[in-house]
Amino acid sequence: MTVAHQGLTGLLDTEAIRKDFPILDREIHDGKKLVYLDNAATSQSPRQVLDVLTEYYEKHNANVHRGVHVLAEEATALYEGARDKVAEFINAPSRDEVIFTKNASESLNLVANMLGWADEPYRVDHETEIVITEMEHHSNIVPWQLLSQRTGAKLKWFGLTDDGRLDLSNLNEVITEKTKIVSFVLVSNILGTHNPVEAIVRRAQEVGALVCIDASQAAPHMPLDVQALQADFVAFTGHKMCGPTGIGVLWGRQELLEDLPPFLGGGEMIETVSMNSSTYAPAPHKFEAGTPPIAGAIGLGAAVDYLNSIGMEKIARHEHALTEYAVQRLLEVPDLKIIGPVTAEDRGAAISFTLGDIHPHDVGQVLDEQGIAVRVGHHCARPVCLRYGIPATTRASFYLYSTPAEVDALVDGLEHVRNFFG
Amino acid sequence: MTVAHQGLTGLLDTEAIRKDFPILDREIHDGKKLVYLDNAATSQSPRQVLDVLTEYYEKHNANVHRGVHVLAEEATALYEGARDKVAEFINAPSRDEVIFTKNASESLNLVANMLGWADEPYRVDHETEIVITEMEHHSNIVPWQLLSQRTGAKLKWFGLTDDGRLDLSNLNEVITEKTKIVSFVLVSNILGTHNPVEAIVRRAQEVGALVCIDASQAAPHMPLDVQALQADFVAFTGHKMCGPTGIGVLWGRQELLEDLPPFLGGGEMIETVSMNSSTYAPAPHKFEAGTPPIAGAIGLGAAVDYLNSIGMEKIARHEHALTEYAVQRLLEVPDLKIIGPVTAEDRGAAISFTLGDIHPHDVGQVLDEQGIAVRVGHHCARPVCLRYGIPATTRASFYLYSTPAEVDALVDGLEHVRNFFG
Amino acid sequence: MYQDVILDHYKHPHGRGLRDGDAEVHHVNPTCGDEITLRVKYDGSRIADVSYEGQGCSISQASASVLNELLVGKELDEARRIQDVFLELMQSKGKIEPDDAMEETLEDAVAFAGVSKYPARVKCALLSWMAWKDATAQALGEDRDNAVRKTA
Amino acid sequence: MYQDVILDHYKHPHGRGLRDGDAEVHHVNPTCGDEITLRVKYDGSRIADVSYEGQGCSISQASASVLNELLVGKELDEARRIQDVFLELMQSKGKIEPDDAMEETLEDAVAFAGVSKYPARVKCALLSWMAWKDATAQALGEDRDNAVRKTA
Ligand SMILES: Cc1ncc(COP(=O)(O)O)c(C=O)c1O
Ligand SMILES: Cc1ncc(COP(=O)(O)O)c(C=O)c1O
């Protein structure tokens, strides 16, 4: 056991924070303390969120909107209150720009489908182009492939540099006058790379293309300001930011949400329905068909409260310090190769690596036997694995409750893996 | 206070059952006991479901599939275990026919979109017809209106008889050789009508049309056997059957799910992805893009366990007895007019009515002041209100924990409403 | 929320019925089906009449009656001020306890303070007021058009 | 799950490398990227050789090695019986405690009993077995085709 982390600055009081997370006390494999380093896949939820969920079902549960009874009024106030909280969290100009979905994937599909059915000037068709990047999560690839197949639009993408960054050297050739939409990830879930937004947005605006940002790995970890990003759409997901599963967010600029057609049809999203035709409610309701994930949204609101109580700036600083330490420690492990930036600058707290020719599945399994939970595989970003000629990686990812001691446990665990298969 | 209900048979032991539902102890408006008669909008969840949700987040929370660590294996086993439970609950021939969605609305939109993008023989296009009914929930109208607008297919529907039943007198003119899909509600959420499936399915099969059944108001209240229904798709929603919000189900016949194209693209639904093209996982995963509502599905599994522990047959019998009693008692109220079948035969436990010319909003509000929660409005079925020339109805809807005493409270409450506005 | 004043207006509405006007609008509250047809008649900048016909709940009906009582005979500026105060009250979520000044401005309409606690009903209370605002804009727009036409 | 037997096979695989065969298949486990190319050679109904090349985790590699050791030289019927037993064991979710009979049938392959507790890894263990099944079907199909051709 190594204690190399004394003197790290910018860390949060994780001893206090960890008390909020019941699952972190869990022991696995006969008494091994859980070291949860799979936060890029999903985060854990604090007591404060779980209590809100239980209280909702025990006291206020009802369908939202339109009810005149007390429970319905309460449930509606809680649900719409969660929208206010999320709007503030991302500095949205208006609460009506916050659409609740079931996850980031639905949010991204929603954008792709709106543009496929839109009128000019937004319509994506066979004469237009869609731009993504080679480091996207499958959830920001497949919706665009489907849109491209269905409309005939051409799908283009930015490639990657050898050190795990976007290759923007051909910015003006990739984004052209034909481009209708540029959709890219703010922080990569596999490489950890934090992408430069400004250059891409500027070029997109130049040619009149819309910009969609996948902030699934950013919203949980740093202050997110949709106005500062200057994007048109921003998507993220609740379960990665201390919230429950089954809730996602799409933020979109108001004028766009007004102009663009609905996606799913059903209750809640209509203004008036007759058998022959229907008119739609204004956004955000236009895009929320059916009974929404009410408890999920309220739980996400509670997660936002929780994150705010710690402070997003502080969380970012904590993770930065931890990432810096982790990169340095991991590089000490023989045969370990980081896939992605080998630095803590402009990167998030997810670190992918290979360990000699030991297969990531074996690395993950032997770490698990020591209580250490990491993710192995292509992390829903297979093109990145293809790009770097590897079948898979092992990924450790940190959050506000992660500690330097957990980094040490990981490094010790990796030594054990090496000896085991050595 | 009237006690007219002695001697009713077939009732459940509601005294015991109600102890499972914390919210039913809630008092509102300064000490008035909650009389919750808004079950068609959403049901309440028993302790048994809430405990499972909390335990999931406190002990097992992780992203599903692909994980090699303990939490991921546990979460996956719980999530897929919920699928097994739901499959058994509806007597699905295969667990792989059960797709988890966020609600019934998404399930129905999924069917409409699959058919819009399908190849022959399923493809809905401008030469084909879609058939629905005039008593559908907006969630089974708007998706088909959108599909019709987008493909040019003609939307047709069955009308209603004066006593709130489907008018099938022109069955063979409505469903024709051009019909590709017939989608209808099994039990109406506004009229309560339980529709005859066999005649419609037989005609649909005759012309080779697919059949989609909206079982949102059936699955919670009676044994549901998708094989006996002989439909191709069956949709329902978790929050109306003691489950959490944010989880729905689409059951579909395996061959169809194999042949039909995916709808949402993203993580989890793929087999392999490259930048140029992707292949899809087999059903159900093909239709579950992104991190699913994991806790929601597990909660729905717990709800299914709970309902099974009471027994769906018994629940149906309980509600039938209660509905019979309620219809009889409501007809005693002067000026009250039931919109829908004025009998307990072939009807569910949702009863809509008007009360003289007192507006439903006022009826609902004054009932609420007495602690009685009903729904007022068009219940997301505005064409039904148009058909019967009324702006809205008041709706009382029962569930396994509803009691004859609550029916009495409603009737007394309505007397009070009449006096108040008289 | 059902103050006697409200019930009184509901049962004995003021100025109900459609009469001659400068502009007519039809407003619907889609969530509950409340409907109103409303006409305004101006005498210069003075409100000569607000006539209406509609169906809906007690709150929307009483609110139209109160509006008629309150606005007919007022100068437009004054009427707008009254509407602003009423709007403020209705959007207060039950947090405004009307003071004397407000009571003086709103007269019977202060009885709607309780309604503001019920978000689902606020729209009912505002239906006729929104219709009036709309009709007024039309009437004055037309007036201006007319004025232009006359001076042309 | 990492029995010494498994690690041994992983580090010192039996019969690895591609040799002459009657049929070749390439199988991939898309969730983790395990890959195998596998050839079978039949001598009548006797398995003359199973040769393979691949990349992947220790479980998938060791499983291929065990397969080679276990099946080469066997009659097809016997090999199929072995495969069925192995499949049963792998799908047992850790609930089968291999008895003597099973041990006799599976030899080193019983070491995979522990793997069956890990759903994510079962696919790795089965990769080569599925490839063998597929290749065998092809080889025998081809044989029959060849037979037909020869007799034609
Ligand atoms: C008959 C019927 N169909 C569909 C729905 C839609 O369900 P959800 O709102 O959960 O999507 C409902 C309930 O609102 C319903 O009653
Ligand atoms: C960068 C990125 N985008 C999108 C997603 C999809 O999120 P979800 O699975 O919640 O839809 C994820 C997480 O899985 C992600 O890391």
Give an account of the 3D structure.
Chains A, B: One of its GO terms (molecular function) is pyridoxal phosphate binding. The complex is a heterotetramer, with two copies of chain A (422 residues) and two copies of chain C (152 residues). Chain A is 37% helix and 16% strand. With 422 residues, chain A is of the alpha/beta class. Chain C is an alpha+beta fold. In chain C, a hairpin with a 2-residue loop joins β2 and β3 (46-55). The longest helix of chain C is centred in the last third of the chain and has 33 residues, at 119-151. Chains in contact: A-B, A-C, A-D, B-C, B-D. The interface between A and B is large, with 95 and 93 residues. Bound molecules: pyridoxal-5'-phosphate (2 copies). One pyridoxal-5'-phosphate sits between chains B (103-105, 137, 139-140, 185, 189, 214, 216-217, 237, 239, 248, 380) and A (266-267, 290-291).
Summarize the structure.
Chain A has 422 residues and is an alpha/beta fold.
Mean pLDDT of chain C: 89
Structural category of chain C is alpha+beta
Give the CATH H-level superfamily of the largest domain in chain A.
Type I PLP-dependent aspartate aminotransferase-like (Major domain)
Strand content range of chain A: 15-25%
Helicity range of chain A:
25-40%
Beta content of chain C comes to: 15-25%
Distance between the termini of chain C: 52 Å
Q: How would you characterize the largest beta sheet of chain A?
A: 7 strands, mixed
Shape of chain C: globular
Major beta sheet summary of chain C: 3 strands, antiparallel
Report strand order across the widest sheet of chain C: 1-2-3
Bound molecules: pyridoxal-5'-phosphate
Largest interface: A-B, 95 and 93 residues
Counting DSSP E segments of at least 2 residues, the number of strands of chain A comes to 17
Quick check: average pLDDT of chain A? Answer: 96
Domain Aminotransferase class V (chains A, B): 35-410
Keywords (chains A, B): Pyridoxal phosphate, Transferase
InterPro entries (chains A, B): Aminotrans_V_dom, Cys_dSase_SufS, PyrdxlP-dep_Trfase, PyrdxlP-dep_Trfase_major, PyrdxlP-dep_Trfase_small
Protein name (chains A, B): cysteine desulfurase
